[in-house]
Amino acid sequence: MRNVKKFLLYLLVTLCIIFYILFHIGTSKDDIIKIMRDRGKSSFMLTTPSKPIITIAAVSCGERLKETLNMLKSVLLFNVNGPHLKFVIVAEESLHIGFQEKLGDWQEILPGQFSYELHDLKFPMGKEKEWKSLFKPCAAQRLFLPSLLQDIDSVLYLDTDTVFLSPVSEIWSLFKDFNATQIAGLSPEHEDKNVGWYNRFAHHPYYGELGVNSGVMLMNLTRMRDFHWEDHILPIHDEYKLKIIWGDQDLINILFYFHPEKLYVFPCEFNYRPDHCMYQSICNASNGVRIMHGNRGYFHSDKQPLFSAVYRAIESYELGKDPYKNFLMNLESDLEDEVVVNSNCGKVEQQVLLKAKKIFVAKDYYYYN
Asked: Which of 57, 216, 259, 271 has CB atoms 3.0–4.6 Å from 155's, for a disulfide?
C-alpha cells in the first residue's frame, strides 16, 4: 500500500514537472505576444474554435470613423447566432483610439462574438502621397491588402458607406462558388446600358460590358498573392493614371479587363446602390437587398430618403437591445414616411425589409447567447 502511494505521488510530481516545462518552455514570450496580437492590438479576446470565422476588412481615413463604425454595427446586428467575426481595419493613426474605444465597448456588450485588428496605412514606398490621394482619402489602400495582410487567406472588403441588411454569412458563402481561377468577386457597376457610366464615358478598358463596382469585394488574398496582384496593379496605374476618374475602382476594372477569368461576378442585391432605383428599378432583388451601398453621399443627404432612413435606423440602434423593437419597428415606421413612399427608391421598401422581417420577429427575443 505504501509503495502504491509513493508511486502515485511520484506520478503526480512528474506530471506537474511536464506541464510546467510545456507551459514555460513550449510557449515562449514571443509566442504569447503573437497570440495576443492575432486577437487584435487592443483586444486579446479568445475566439471560439468550434465556430467558423468571417474576416471583414475596411479602410478608414479623414471623417470616416463614424461611418465605418455604423457599417460594422450593421454586420453585428444581422449576425444573429452567426460565425465569429474578425474586423481588420486599416486606418490613419489619429483614428485608432476612436476605434479602440467603441469596439472595446461593443466587446463588453457582445462577449466572444468578434475580435479586431487595427493596422496603419501602408502604400508603396516613395509614392505614399500619390496613392493616398488617388480618389477618396486612402481608398486605394484596398489594392495593397494582399501584401499588408500576409497571414490572412480571404477577406470581405467593404467601403465605409455600406450597411448590411442580411447576415454576412450569405455573401461570404459565395467564396465556395469561385472556380479554380477566380481570385476576387464583385458586382456589376450598372444593369442598364442606357445609364451605364463606363460604356458611355470611360477612356480606358473596363471589365465586361458595363464594368464592375468595387464597394463590396470578396478577396481571396492567397490567390491574389499567387497571381502577384500588386505587380499587375502598379504598371496599370503608371499607364492609365491620367485617364481614370474613379481611382482604385478604375484600376480594378482595367486589371479584370485583361484577366476576366480571374473575376467572379455576384448579383446587385449584394451591392445595392441608388442607381438601381433612382430612375427605375433595375436590380432584381427578389431575395431582398442584402447590402446597401450609399455611394456619392446618399446616406447623408435627402436625395433618395430611403437610403438615409436605413442609415439612421442602424445608427440609432444600440447593440444588445431587442432588434425587433429597437431597429425593425423604427425602420418600418421611417419607411412609411410620405417622403420615402413618394420617392422612386421608396418603391423597393419591401426588398429592403425582407431579410430583417425574417430574422427579427415579435417575441421574447434572446438575441445573444
From this structure: 57
- Other Cβ atoms within 10 Å of 148 Cβ, number: 19
Cβ neighbours of residue 350 closer than 8 Å, sequence gap 6 or more: none
Q: How far is it between the farthest Cα atoms of the chain?
A: 94
Q: What is the pLDDT of residue 367?
A: 47
**Joined grid coordinates for residue 359:** 430574422
Task: Indicate if the pLDDT at residue 25 is higher than 50.
Answer: no
CA distances from 277 to 92, 181, 195, 266 (A): 34, 33, 12, 18
Q: Residues 97-132: pLDDT tens digits?
A: 999 999 999 999 999 999 999 999 998 877 777 777
Grid cell locating 202: 470611360
What phi, psi does 236 have (nearest 5°)?
A: -65, -45
Which residue bears the cell 485583361?
258
State the pLDDT at residue 22. 42
For residues 108 and 31, what is the distance between their CA atoms, to the nearest angstrom?
26
For the chain, the domains span 53-269, 272-359
Distances (CA, A) of 23 to 73, 97, 210, 222, 235: 38, 34, 58, 33, 50
Residue-wise pLDDT tens digits, 159-174: 999 999 999 999 999 9
CATH topology of domain 53-269: Spore Coat Polysaccharide Biosynthesis Protein SpsA; Chain A (3.90.550)
SS3 call for 337: coil
Conformational region of residue 241, where left means phi above 0, alpha means psi within -120 to 50, and beta covers everything else: alpha
At which residue does the C-alpha cell 447623408 appear? Answer: 300
Estimate the crossing angle of helix 65-78 against helix 305-316, to 10 degrees: 80
CB-based contact 138:224 (threshold 8 Å):
no
